[in-house]
TrEMBL record:
Region (Disordered): 322-345
Domain of life: Bacteria
UniProt keyword annotation of DNA-binding present: yes
Molecular function, one GO term: sequence-specific DNA binding
Name of the protein described by the UniProt record: TRANSCRIPTIONal REGULATOR, LysR family
Pfam family, one: LysR_substrate
InterPro entries: LysR_HTH_N, LysR_subst-bd, WH-like_DNA-bd_sf, WH_DNA-bd_sf
SUPFAM superfamilies the UniProt entry points to: Periplasmic binding protein-like II, Winged helix' DNA-binding domain
Keyword Cell division attached: no
Alphabetical keyword list: DNA-binding, Transcription, Transcription regulation
Biased composition annotated in UniProt, kind: Polar residues: 336-345
Domain called HTH lysR-type: residue spans: 1-58
One example of a Gene Ontology biological process annotation: positive regulation of gene expression
Amino acid sequence: MEIRQLEAFAAVVTTGSVTAAGRLLGRSQPAITRLIQELEAELGFALFTRSGPRVSPTEQGFLLYDEVEQTLAGMQRIRTRAAALARGDGRPLRIAATPALAAGLLPPALALAFARGLCAPERVAVQSQSPEQVVHAVLTGAADIGLNSLPLEHRGVTVHWIGQSACVAALRADDPLAALPALTLQDCRGRRLIAMHNPYRLRRRVDRALAGAGVPAAGVIDTNTSISALTLVRAGLGIALLEPVTARGLPLTDIAVRPIDADIPFFFGVITPQARPASAAVQGLVQAVADAAATLLPDLVRREPAEHGALLQSLYGDAGDAGNADDAGDAADLPTQDSGLTSHD
């Protein structure tokens, strides 16, 4: 399996056409076709279904593309790093963050880090990824630091601090409820709600709060990012119950953000690889993120990393006893359990 074959495969998936892929890579259409055929012969299955000049990935092709995309991205990082070494540049600071934290919190944190002279803008690389991918990037060394929602249970990463802030409601500024200084969950009765689709993370807390208040929704639009939730609200499609970082850190015209009366906490923090000492730039960014969060979120509570195990317990319960998670108390009141992570102040 050669890189040229993988590049041809990825280009055809991206463009939907062998001819367009050839133009993208600067190769002829027959050359692209030959590379794809060679790759399919080596793999033993078809990567595309063909309909005239258009091609579509098979199910196996779609599944393979995820791996190929990561491999090619790694190759691009190698090329970029090699070019930087040739210029005599130092190693860039590689940051992985969830979409919410990358959009709402990382920019002001980086601005603080730059102002403090901790790193140069041209030596920073930012990747916006899912929480699971952020952890993977930190564990594998693809990222020096991760900004992630919590809790998480992965050995090999260090949690430096835990931030807690209350979730908020986002609604159109011309909505009658926007005239209120704060919303109750009862205000959402009969309204279409917009929420995160992952049932094991923040959505779990939102659903539990709504059920506890006896508030049925007229309907729910599921989405995978808070940014999408805000744009759906802007289009008048409902009220969003979401984490506060995006809502306050990425304000949109015609969107009103209001506190809600329910205790729906959002937890987040900074993680680094346990096996590799944090550089001065990483340590500085850890502090810059904390400072930026304190400015952005007026209700921010900063918890100690040692509370991470209790946080896991309060939200999910012990393994095999998840049914009791809903009855668990506040994280700070629970005994700390071994979460498999190293704590740093």
